[in-house]
Amino acid sequence: MNNSIRFVSVAVVLLGLCTDLAQAGQTCGDVSGQSTGARASGDDAFACGTDAQADGTRSLALGTRSRATDADTVAVGTDAQASGLGGLAVGSQSAASGRRSTAIGTGSAASGDLSTAIGGNSIASGANSTANGYQARATRQGATALGNQALASAESTTAVGQLAAATAVQSTAVGTAAQATGTRSSA
User: Fold this and answer.
1) Domain of 185?
2) Which contacts qualify for 33-39: CB closer than 8 Å, 24 or more apart?
3) 141-154 pLDDT, tens digit each
4) Closest Cα to residue 120, out of 109, 107, 102?
């Protein structure tokens, strides 16, 4: 089982446990009962971890310096940031800033509305975009990048495979290092 799936499984279990515990503005302390500086200012919010902040209504922040700042956001991991309405950020330095976006994996970023970034340092910055794989990038609306360092950098493009790149509108690149550079082209 890869680390992202394990981490998400743990996050889901913790979310279930914390949902039962959370009331308006709940935080947790360290083992000795001392404050960790966690802050839960949103209604029905919960924060746990050194300097964790759950400011949105029904938000959850778990981990050192994690931030869940809008309604229905979840940030799990050191420096995880969930700032878009309904966003989910799981993993150290992950960021979900688009509305209803999902970022899973260390350094992953989902900034487009309804975007999904899964994998270390993956980026989904276009609306409705999907990036899945280490350093996969989907940077325009409706772009899909699947694979290690796959790139979908134009509107409605698809890149599947390690180092595959679809860089022109409505282009498709499938296979290792495949390159689709013309409008509506396939490789």
Assistant:
1) 126-187
2) none
3) 999 999 999 999 99
4) 107
